[in-house]
Write a structure and sequence with these properties.
- The chain is of the alpha+beta class.
- The chain has 2 domains: 259 residues, no CATH class; 90 residues, no CATH class.
- Helix content is 22%, strand content 42%.
- The chain is built from 8 helices and 27 strands.
- Strands 15, 16, 17, 18, 19, 20, 21 and 22 form an 8-stranded antiparallel β-sheet that branches.
- A hairpin with a 2-residue loop joins strand 15 and strand 16.
- It is globular.
- The protein starts with a strand and ends with a strand.
Length: 380
């Protein structure tokens, strides 16, 4: 596996961060992350197509771009990959043409060739998709043992528009899935959070899909406003500082859900994934050191999955809520990943509205929020 990584900023223009592909035309895959406004522009896409004419170009808008150990906003990061023994195949859907997010996951999984399929990477619109239903459709339809990782596109803390680039076309409402084929490719993954729970355990007394209306018979939005105090005016972004932990029963692993939008009239909150009626939940708050430790833990888990192989490429997908909390310390979590994975691995990624990765005993994939999720690749 050979990799060339480049980035673009307003002040520096295009710069090479890592590696070199003298014959860029041999790259089969370009992964791109960028700010919404930059992703809308045609210049970067035209230049990338010219540089890598044979490559599938896949990516999304972000709430921050990761390039090596730097985190930037409103930049463009491209990571071009030339495989030696691996084949890739892309599938895509427009969520507006699907019955629902579960149907979209099923359609994507069916569209990929299952013969020899090793792994699937998914990048999805971050506002129009129910991430947990998307993950469910994928894992129910893909072959046993094929894992899925990826994430939901971001739009900073604005929550207005998100974009996905699929085969060189950038648009809203899109979900792209990339299938990897070949026995020589090793893929590792890990996902950890680092948030502390606080307050009493509460019962979800009214919800519908990923829309939460009541906790303990009270308005969920009202409860959040009480906790947020003066920060309530900044909803929904400020709710990212207080994600919701869903408890999966005695001895089971919990999932974290984060807010995507609010409805004052209905007094409801829309989350990135389902909030099941009858579930028990607790509010969470940030712990700076544990957030950084969580990123390092995810890196260790992804590395362990690879076995003895050293990763060539690592895709880091971290929740926008972590970025809002860590602020000027945000690069500490990326530096923690570098320490675990070593200097050889090329690091790319983005801050997201949701992360997709296998979870606990669930085969395939699940939606996570407020985690650092890492996918590592090694071709030997």
């Amino acid at each position: 596996m050979k990799i060339e990584q480049r980035y673009w900023t307003e002040s520096e223009g295009w710069q090479t961060e890592a590696g070199s592909l003298p014959n860029g035309g041999d790259a089969q895959w370009v992964l791109v992350f960028g700010g919404v406004e930059k992703m809308r522009e045609a210049a970067w896409l035209q230049e990338t197509k010219q540089r890598y004419p044979k490559a599938l170009i896949m990516g999304c808008s972000t709430a921050g771009e990761i390039c090596a150990t730097r985190v930037r906003d409103e930049s463009i990061v491209t990571t071009a990959v030339q495989f030696e023994h691996t084949r890739i195949e892309m599938a895509q859907v427009d969520i507006g043409q699907m019955k629902d997010s579960h149907d979209a996951g099923v359609h994507l999984a069916q569209a990929l060739d299952h013969e020899g399929l090793t792994h699937v990477l998914v990048l999805s619109d971050g506002l129009k998709v129910n991430g947990s239903e998307l993950a469910k459709g994928l894992r129910e339809t893909l072959p046993q043992g094929v894992a899925v990782t990826g994430g939901l596109a971001g739009d900073g803390s604005r929550f207005q528009h998100t974009l996905v680039c699929a085969d060189g076309v950038v648009m809203e409402g899109k979900i792209a899935a990339l299938g990897f084929y070949g026995e020589r490719l090793k893929v590792g993954y890990g996902s950890l959070g680092g948030w502390d729970v606080f307050g009493p355990e509460r019962l979800v007394t009214k919800s519908s899909g990923n829309v939460l209306y009541e906790l303990d018979g009270q308005s969920a939005l009202g409860l959040y406003k009480n906790y947020l105090g003066d920060h309530a005016a900044g909803l929904p972004a400020t709710a990212l500082l207080f994600p919701l932990e869903l408890l999966s029963g005695e001895g089971g692993a919990s999932l974290v859900r984060t807010v995507l939008g609010i409805d004052e009239a209905a007094q409801s909150m829309t989350f990135a994934g389902d909030i099941s009626e009858g579930a028990h939940a607790r509010l969470m708050k940030a712990n700076f050191d544990r957030l950084v430790d969580g990123a390092s833990g995810a890196a260790k888990a992804s590395h362990e999955t690879l076995g003895s192989a050293a990763p060539d490429l690592a895709i880091l997908i971290s929740c926008v809520g972590r970025k809002l909390v860590l602020k000027q310390r945000i690069e500490e979590e990326v530096e923690g990943v570098r320490e675990v994975l070593g200097a050889h691995a090329v690091l790319t990624g983005f801050y997201s509205y949701g992360e997709i990765c296998p979870h606990g005993t669930i085969t395939g994939c699940e939606l996570h929020n407020q985690t650092m999720t890492i996918t590592t690749f090694s071709e030997n």
